[in-house]
Amino acid sequence: MDGASGTNWLNQLTSNSVQGAAFAPAWAVSAYKNEPMDPLDSRNYYPHPITGVQALRNVPLRASAMIAIVDDYQTLYYEEPTTLYNKFHGTAWGGFGYWKHHTNHDIYASESLLPDGTAFSSKNITINRLADVILMQAECKIKTGQVDDALDLINDIRKRWGLVLLGSAGSDLGHSYDDEAYTAQSLMQHLMRVEKPLETSIEGNNIRF
């Protein structure tokens, strides 16, 4: 334990502590990258640098928040567009994506600028997060046959990221929906295989997906 912060030292390590990066597996990168973005959400658009016309983002907002991937030109990573980051080229590239957890990509140009050196991160450690609590509540709703209530809870999280929502739109004209008829079984599979791993990814210790 670090006496000053009360943080387990294992959780202080930055991406530079293990071969210069914490690689995200290919399945996770693909899942993040291919989540359907809501075309009705203005956050999913950016002004194209050449034409000036509003264009759809290269990757969804949840992907940009969780991992660094070469497709993500709209998000800064160590003070430059992720696509231009110096580990995304033929001789340096060692994986499909980098986890952003515990890194200081949003406040420094390099982990080497950290006051305590590259082996320690100043980031807070997420112990419990509201989204995880919401997903646990959604799981309880599914198990008690309240599928519509579970859909509402899961969609609250998906709205935050500008993703296409689950189920039917009903009277909601402000968001896009996938129009799937979810059962308790199919929604539980979605929660376990999509929402839980992509929302909490490598947070915590022995987290249950």
TrEMBL record:
The lineage of its organism: Bacteria, Pseudomonadati, Bacteroidota, Flavobacteriia, Flavobacteriales. InterPro entries: SusD_RagB_dom, TPR-like_helical_dom_sf. GO terms for cellular component: cell outer membrane. It comes from the Bacteria. The keyword Signal applies. Pfam families: SusD_RagB (PF07980). Belongs to the SusD family. Residues 76-206 form the RagB/SusD domain. Keywords: Cell outer membrane, Membrane, Signal. It is found in: Cell outer membrane. This is RagB/SusD domain-containing protein.
